[in-house]
Structures are given as structure tokens and as C-alpha cells.
TrEMBL record, chains A, B:
The lineage of its organism: Eukaryota, Viridiplantae, Streptophyta, Embryophyta, Tracheophyta. It is found in: Membrane. Keywords: Membrane, Sulfate transport, Symport, Transmembrane, Transmembrane helix, Transport. This is Sulfate transporter 3.1. It comes from Hibiscus syriacus (Rose of Sharon). It is a multi-pass membrane protein.
Length: 602, 602
């Protein structure tokens, strides 16, 4: 095989590009609906089973406890008790602290670690998820409800609002799951989550300045400017004892001591114990490096652990379980719960085997509720603040942010957008900014596709992007362009301009490499028709290489294949170039109907 | 070359996939900004020119009349006078009718065909655009302002609001153009426009039932239900004479006659003349088939004609011109104007040469204003209705709708969404529905990419989608998958599930064909890392074929190339298969570090 003018073995019969067989509209419609909503095919296991078996499978589908319950062994129980008690030791201080974040009575945090885990143990399909309240959701709830009702002035109404909000959050989660719309959460990218969590953590930490500095008055806004103004306008009220104590209790596991605590020695012991456990487990979870896998979304901590242990989690089903748990919980004085990643990581490290560990945790929390409730009256705010701050620092994943900057600047922008939005405006603004940037990126990808000029890789019939492969040779008289996105209304006119402006020199053929064009719509086809007219007028021949099945289907239906001529569509760029070469050297381009005319500028 | 086990000539040295040379961040950032906002490079002509020349070019850039004015000839003038008078004969009756649609005094319609064309003649770069008011914008203005102020009760305030709205519409258009954001209008697809225009035309026609049936009271809502209820609740008030006249004057070019008109004979003559011209030119424009190319967007009629005559139109610059024309117009009692496609088509057919035809039209309209104004007091509503209905039927492009159904069901949905939204709710609702469906389609394309299984085309090293090419042979022991979209956060978890569930049989290699993967973000890279782990655990080797430059760059930065091994990235599927075949037949897969393990289900 020579370099420039080798003869292709079967030039006279290049491969045909196939138009896929037509599919009835409703069949293809059904298929695409199925791909959109049931990509994981959750009903596969029900196929070809007798009705009684189907009923049992259906029950097990919604109540996985029926599946693993009968196989439950004493060995499992031992592991689950250990892990259950471990996560309870996290759930108690965190529950109380996070309830404070939501401006709710601390005891609600414990209720929320009691009822929902029991529901999840029956309905959840993850074996590792530890159920409980989370800081960011608590903060969100507190700030959103605080806009409506002042918790201090009207505590009963505030409480009722909190339960109603939880109830409807549950309804929303369960319906998204039932309607198989869980994929909507895919639109929260990894970068969004990193930025959002770090921003929320920053806001939460700033809020704790009230407790840390022992301030009585504090702004109700969450943005950094209001908070700092509020803090620095009261410099004379700062209590250094309180700050030192907070620093001490958040950085070590020693027992705390405040002026309030002095009144009751018992609570000091309880709090000391809790913080000890908290810091211990937090650092342990860190050591195992779990925090590096930042949770993608609400129901993804379950999935991440499922991957470790290799079993399958259906995200939509998990959303139904978590939604039900919130619906039921809201009737029992619980507020918003989910499966926090950090606590689940502790659960896995402590060796949990099944969701029974949640039941054990619930029982431990119940024990705390029965016997330790009197102590909760004296909640030492400074210690709660310290607990929260220690937990929050774990959410600020600056290494992930550096990684984003290195690998993908756009993702970094998304992350910083979310962070700055949350810190300088509000949680909602941050979320909206991040989602808007992310979606804008998708739209820009489609609206501004790149067109590459391809060249021949020496001694082969392979044609590649000349920018990526600088050693390629250009083919004289032939311009080969690759389009790297679907051709849709959003980019049709942009591509038309690109294709028109390309190659102002004396050309004979323009080959469009279509492999990466996944789809085309009617605007795209109109654009190609215009390009065809322009190239005709300039005396150029338009040649297509390897259009995909969707594109061929559409081109066929719109009769554009007849316009361009089936013989000008080739399977590979190599074959197209070969055919052009042959025509170029043996005869004029066969444009009997459309004579090539010189392109006169008006 | 045999079929199953031929030997590739240079198997030992397959082509390397290149990592593109790293670009400084700000350079690539600048490039992508330029591609997004200046894809047409409007400043190209300013490069390497002396400052005085630059200044002249800059003036000509904003005032194209300085460019073509000096070259203006008497021949041009003759053509422009003919076409100018022709479009004036359209502008007068349409101006009056459309002003009625906006609930404005008819004379404003004439003002709007006087001042703005003069501005456009100086600033516009299209030689064919005829400036004037359009029905849909007038209707929109009427319905939106009507929500705020009742035109009958408070005419002065209504007028002021109309001018203010025009002013701000002009500011918006000019700023979008100046900020090079004209591409935003690309997001209105062809299908959206077809449905939206048909819906708006239906609404306008329904509104004319008031005039056609001679009703005194009429609903102020625009949706079909309110209108029909209003019409049929007043059956006893219908005036058949009026309806017959309307039918007659809209379907033929004979002179109209109404009870109101009888009072003044002159106006009958004027109106008859106008309708005659209107119907004549309307049918003429139809005959030339211009209406089939439905205007894509405001500034696209200019571009379509520019393509016919082969000169370049900068859409953003046109937006500046049209915006300025509205800003200036609003100060001279003009309301919203643009370049309507139908009138521009008439302009082209009448042989216009430059924007001077707009000046001629403006002068003709001024003549009408000076001498025919007394007649406008007796505006025969039924005739106006007939004019509007005749123009509106031209906007209902049912053939385009059938074409959409045949070629692309999704585009058809977009079109019907816009139509039904406009007809059953309001203009805004229709627009929002259509844009939402269009953008949803883009997002779904990215969120639910397709993965194809590739097979070998007999007697070649070409690998293609087995569904499109049923004659392909599968390669034993190797699964070849093609991904046809960029790998972004929105599809990363979907693709992970697809890749995991693919090929449950005994495989040795999974080849991912990446040509169509235009880009990847950090979520996508995490997904690939997970897939790599899963395949390792199942004892499979993950092989990449032809990742593009962006993908290679990201994979390199995130060190994923080291994870997968540079030697497992091939330039073509053929080379990848060949390498796998060789390893498969001569030795075990070289997994020294990661031993293949049987995949045990837990």
C-alpha cells in the first residue's frame, strides 16, 4: 500500500450505508419511553413466573425484609448489634445538633432517629444505609421555615409547618420514585454537590459563631455578609471562654465544660461521651478514605456501598422507601431524614450485615429517649456548635475542588458557582446557579459543536483530526470535516456558518464525517439542504461518511438521501476519499444535473 | 484478507492515540469564548489595517449605507422605486389592520411603516428586508398590554405603555446583538416556530370573528374556549351581511362595501385598492413558494434572502439595527416593528436592489399619511378583519406540520405543543411549552445516550452497529460497545448501568468505541473508573478505541490513562480487536497486577 495513490481493492463496490428497517411508530415510542423511565428494567424478574410467585416477588420487591428476614442468622445479629450501637452513638449527638440547626426542639432529632430507621429496615434495599437527619437538609428547613414563621414567637405553628414540610417532602420523594423519575437527580452533577455541600457547611459553621462566641442576638439571614456584620457588630459581647471551649471540644475528644453545664454534672458526662464517640468515628471514617467518594445524591450512598459489596440497588425503589419513611415519620413527630453518607460509612466499617443495624440503632435511641431525656433540657449550645463544626469540616472537600480545577474547568466553575451562591446569597440561589451552569454547559455542547478537519494518517486508510494528530497528511482537493455532536435546531445555523466558511480554496469535494452525529432533527435536515445548495453553487460535491442509524432514518424519510444521491454516502471516510480520488483522476465530478459553476461574489 | 483470523500487517505496532498538546488555560478559555460569542468572527476584516481605515470600516460596519451609498446607481433606484411602492401597497392596509390587533389607533400602524424603515435603511445590512409591523407581535402586544390597562377606558396610558414596551423591546434586541447573544434565538426551533405561528394565526383569526360577525361585545381573552363561548352566546347578534362581505373580500380582490362604508365612498375605493394589491401580492408571494421557508426567527428573513443572493448577514448586527429602529421609533409614536418575511419576499420578487426600497416605502406611506388620513377615521372593521384573516391563513403551514410528523415525531410534538398551548391557553404558555419540550429533548439526548453493540462487516476491518447492519458478525470473546453522546453528569450513572448490565456471558474484552464521545466531565470520568473496577472484578479487560482530543485530554489530566494503560487505547476498533485476538490466542490477558477473578454473585 503506497502513501498517496494506492488502489483500494474493491473500489468499484464500496460498502453500502444501510437505512435501518422502518419500525412502527408506537413500537419505537414504547422503546424510547422504556429506555427513559425503566433503563434498569425492574420488572425483569417478574417475567414468566406463575401468579402466586409474582405476588410473593412483588411483596418482596416493596418489602425487602421479607426476602432477607427468613435467612437472618445469629452471626448477622451479632454484627448488626455492634454496628447499630456504633451508629446510635453518632445519631444521638448529631440528631440533637441538627435539630437545633432546623430551629426544632432537640428531642425531635432523636425521634427522627427512632421511627424512620424502623420503616427503612422493612422497605429499604440497601444493607448498609444508616438512616437519620442530615445537617444540610436541617439548615435548609430551618432557613425556609424561618422565612414564614418565627420559631421563637410561634413555636407550635413552626412545629406543624416542619411536620407538614416533611410529609410533603416524603410524598415528593415517593412519587418521584413511583413515577420512575429518579433520573432527574442525575442532573445534580458531582461538581454541583461538592460546591453545594462545602457552601452549606460554610454557612452552618458561620451560624455556629453564635454558639461559639456566646452571642445572644444573631441575624436570621444565612449569607456570609449578614453573619459577619452581625458578629463584628457585637465584638464587645464575645465570650472568650465559650470560644476556647468550642475549639477544645471540636478538636479533641475531651469532655466539655461550660457555665451552663456546671449546673448539672450528669449532662457533662453524657455530652463528653457523645463527643468522644463522634470524634472517634468521624476520624475513623476519614482514615478509611470514604469521604473521598462524595455522595452523588440522596439515594446514592446506598448505591456506592452496594457497589463495594456487589449487590444491586434500584435508585427509584430507594426513593420510594425514603419517601415512605418521611411520610410515616412526619406523623410521629419526626422531621426530614435520609441516609447520610458519613454515618453509612461508619455503619459499613462497624461491620453491619443487614438493615437490622438500623433497628438496633432505633432501639438504642429509644433507650436514650427513655432515660436521658431529662438531661436534654440543659443542651449546652457551645458543645452542640462544636459537634456541628467538627462534622461540617468533613463536608468541605477542598481536594475534590482542586481535582475539578485540574481536570475540568467548567466543572470547577459549577462547583464555585454553587459554593459562592450558597455562601453569599442563600442555599436556593446556590443550587439554582449550579444547576443553571450545568444545564447551560449541556446546551452549549449541543449549541456550539466543534467541526474538525480530518487528515490521513500516513500508510493507512485512517482519517483523524489534524489538531490531535499533527502528523496527518491533508488530502488535496478534498475537505474532510467531522461534526462531533447531534445536529439539532440549537446548532443548525451555527453549523451552517461553519460549513459555509470552511475551505475557501479550490476544492472539489467536501466529505462530512457523521459518526459522531447521534441524531438530527428537521432543523438540522433543513440546514443540510442549505449546505447542499451552497456547495452545489460553488461547484463542490457533498459526500457523507458513515451516518448512523437514526440519521439515515431521518435523511431517508425527508428524501434528502435522494437529493444527495445514495452513491455519495460511504461507510468510511477512507472509502469516500478513495471514491473521490478515483473520480478526480479519471473523470469530472458526475454533476450532470447541477453543473459546477464558479462562485461569483455579488 | 480472510474472514475470521486474518493477520493484521502491523499488529505489533498499532497506531498510537495522541494526547493533544496541553494548551494554557486562558488560551483555550479565550478560544471557547470566541467560538461561543463570535463564531462568525465579525472583526476579521479589521485585522492588519491602518487606524484611519479601521475607523472607516467601523463606521461602515454600523452604517452599511456608507458602504453601498457611494456605489448607488440610477439603475438601482429604478428597481428600488418599483419594489418600494409595491411593499408600500402592502404596508398601508397591513399596518392599519395590525394596529387594530394591538388595540392601537390605525394611524400608528402607518407611523410604524414610516420612521423605522428610514432607520433600517441606514443601519441594516440586508438588501431585501422590508420593515414593518407583524401580526403576531401586534397580537402579543395587545394581549399583554390589555392585561394591564383597558385600552378603551384609558387610551392615553395604553398608548404610553405601548411606546414604552416598544422602547424596551428595542433595548433588549440591541443589547442581545451588542452582547453577541443572538444565538439564544437559535433555541427556537423550526418546529416551534411552525406551531407557534399557526397557533397565533388561529388566535388572530378567532379574534376577527368579532369584526366578521359584527359583534359589539367580545371577550378580551385569546384562548379558543373563551372566544367560542363569547361568539356562541351572542348568536342572535350575528350579522350575516357582515360575514358574507368578509368572506367575499378575503377570498377575492373585489372592492368591499359595508353599511359603515356607504357613508363615505372614497374610503371604499382606497380599501378596495389596498385589498386588491394585498391579495395580488400575497398570492404572488405564494406562487414563488417563499412561504414554505418559514422564517426561523426575527432576524432570519434577512439571512434567508441573503443566501439566495449570496452575501453575508451578521445576525447579531441585524439585531442591533432592528433594536435601534425600535428605540428610535418608540420616540416617534411607532410601535413594535421588525422585518416580516412575507413582505420581504414581495420586496425580493418586485426586484429590490438595496435597502433604498425601504426609503421609497416610507415616502409612499408618508404620502398616504398626508393625504389619506381623513379617510382613516372610517375604518371598516369588517374589511380589516378580512385582510387579517387572509394574511393569517398564510401563516398556518399545515404541510410543514405533516412533514414534521413524517420525519421527526419529537419535532411534531414540539410543534403541536406550541400550537395547542397558544390556542387553548395563551401565547406565552405556548411558547414556554414549545421551548420546554425542545430543551427537554436536548437534555434527554444527553441524559439517555444509546449504546450500540458493534459487529464486524464481513471481509473488512470495519465495525458497525449490528442493528443498522444486520449482516455483521459478532466477535467471539469480545464485546464492542459504541457510546453515541458525550459522557456528562447527566448520563454517567445511566451509562454505568448500561455498561455493567451488558454482556453477561463469558467475555474476555470489552472495547468501548469512543469516536462519538465529544466530551467528558469529572462525573463521566468517575463513572469510567467505576466501570473499570467492575470489569476488573469480573476478569474483563477494558479497551478504548479512538477517544477524541477533548476526552484524551481529560483522561490524561485525571490520570485515568495510567489506570487503564496507554497500551489499551487503540486508534480504531479494528486495531483494538486485532490486538485482543492476538492476546486471546497466544497468551492470557496481561493482567499481572489485577488477576482475573470469577465474578461471584453475593
Amino acid at each position: 500500500m503506497g502513501n498517496s495513490d494506492y488502489v483500494y481493492p474493491d473500489r468499484q463496490s464500496p460498502h453500502q450505508v444501510a437505512v435501518p428497517p422502518p419500525q412502527p411508530f408506537f413500537k419505537s415510542f414504547k422503546n424510547s419511553l422504556k429506555e427513559t423511565f425503566f433503563p434498569d428494567d425492574p420488572l425483569r424478574q417478574f417475567k414468566n413466573k406463575p401468579p402466586s410467585r409474582k405476588f410473593l416477588l412483588g411483596l418482596q420487591y416493596f418489602m425487602p425484609i421479607l426476602e432477607w428476614g427468613p435467612r437472618y442468622s445469629f452471626e448477622f445479629l451479632k454484627s448488626d448489634i455492634i454496628s447499630g450501637i456504633t451508629i446510635a452513638s453518632l445519631a444521638i449527638p448529631q440528631g440533637i445538633s441538627y435539630a437545633k440547626l432546623a430551629n426544632l426542639p432537640p428531642i425531635l432529632g432523636l425521634y427522627s432517629s427512632f421511627i424512620p430507621p424502623l420503616i427503612y429496615a422493612m422497605m429499604g434495599s440497601s444493607r448498609d444505609l444508616a438512616v437519620g437527619t442530615v445537617a444540610v437538609a436541617s439548615l435548609l428547613m430551618g432557613s425556609m421555615l424561618g422565612d414564614e414563621v418565627n420559631a421563637a414567637e410561634n413555636p407550635t405553628l413552626y412545629l406543624h409547618l416542619a411536620f407538614t414540610a416533611t410529609f410533603f417532602a416524603g410524598i415528593l420523594q415517593a412519587s418521584l420514585g413511583l413515577l420512575r423519575l429518579g433520573f432527574i437527580v442525575d442532573f445534580l452533577s458531582h461538581a454541583t454537590i461538592v460546591g453545594f455541600m462545602a457552601g452549606a457547611a460554610t454557612v452552618v459553621i458561620l451560624q455556629q459563631l453564635k454558639g461559639v462566641l456566646g452571642l445572644d442576638h444573631f441575624t436570621r439571614s444565612t449569607d456570609i455578609i449578614s453573619v459577619l456584620r452581625s458578629v463584628f457588630s457585637q465584638i464587645h459581647e464575645w465570650r472568650w471562654e465559650s470560644a476556647v471551649l468550642a475549639l477544645f471540644s471540636s478538636s479533641s475528644s475531651s469532655s466539655p465544660d461550660t457555665s451552663e453545664l456546671e449546673e448539672r454534672a450528669e449532662s457533662t458526662v453524657v455530652w463528653g461521651f457523645c463527643i468522644h464517640l463522634f470524634v472517634f468515628f468521624n476520624s475513623r471514617a476519614d482514615r478509611h478514605g470514604h469521604r473521598r467518594h462524595c455522595p452523588r445524591r440522596r439515594n446514592s450512598s446506598g448505591r456506592s456501598f452496594a457497589m463495594l459489596k456487589q449487590y444491586h440497588i434500584d435508585g427509584n425503589k430507594e426513593m420510594v422507601a425514603i419517601g415512605t419513611m418521611n411520610i410515616v415519620g412526619s406523623c410521629f413527630s419526626c422531621y426530614l431524614t435520609t441516609g447520610p453518607f458519613s454515618r453509612s460509612a461508619v455503619n459499613v466499617n462497624a461491620g453491619c450485615k443487614t438493615a437490622m443495624s438500623n433497628v438496633v440503632m432505633a432501639l438504642a435511641v429509644m433507650f436514650a429517649l427513655l432515660f436521658l431525656t431529662p438531661l436534654f433540657h440543659y443542651t449546652p449550645i457551645v458543645v452542640l456548635s462544636a459537634i456541628i463544626i467538627a462534622a461540617m469540616f468533613g463536608l468541605i472537600d477542598y481536594e475534590a475542588t482542586i481535582h475539578l480545577w485540574k481536570v475540568d474547568k467548567f466543572d470547577f466553575m459549577v462547583c464555585m458557582g454553587a459554593y459562592l451562591g450558597v455562601v453569599f446569597a442563600s442555599v436556593e440561589v446556590g443550587l439554582v446557579i449550579a444547576v443553571a451552569i450545568s444545564v447551560l454547559r449541556l446546551l452549549l455542547f449541543v449549541a456550539r459543536p466543534r467541526t474538525f478537519v480530518l487528515g490521513n494518517i500516513p500508510n493507512s486508510t485512517i482519517y483523524r483530526n489534524v489538531e490531535q494528530y499533527p502528523t496527518t497528511d491533508s488530502v488535496p482537493g478534498i475537505l474532510i470535516l467531522e461534526i462531533d455532536a447531534p445536529i439539532y435546531f440549537a446548532n443548525a445555523s451555527y453549523l451552517r456558518e461553519r460549513l459555509k466558511s470552511a475551505g475557501e480554496t479550490s476544492l472539489q469535494y467536501v466529505i462530512l464525517h457523521m459518526t459522531a452525529v447521534g441524531n438530527i432533527d428537521t432543523s438540522g435536515i433543513s440546514m443540510l439542504e442549505e449546505v447542499k445548495k451552497t456547495t452545489d453553487r460553488r461547484g463542490l460535491k457533498l459526500v457523507f461518511a458513515n451516518p448512523g442509524s437514526e440519521v439515515m432514518k431521518k435523511l431517508n424519510k425527508s428524501k434528502f438521501i435522494e437529493t444527495i444521491g445514495q452513491e455519495w454516502i460511504y461507510l468510511t471516510v477512507g472509502e469516500a476519499v478513495e471514491a473521490c480520488h478515483y473520480k478526480l483522476h479519471t473523470c469530472k465530478p458526475d454533476s450532470t444535473s447541477e453543473e459546477p459553476q464558479p462562485w461569483n461574489k455579488v
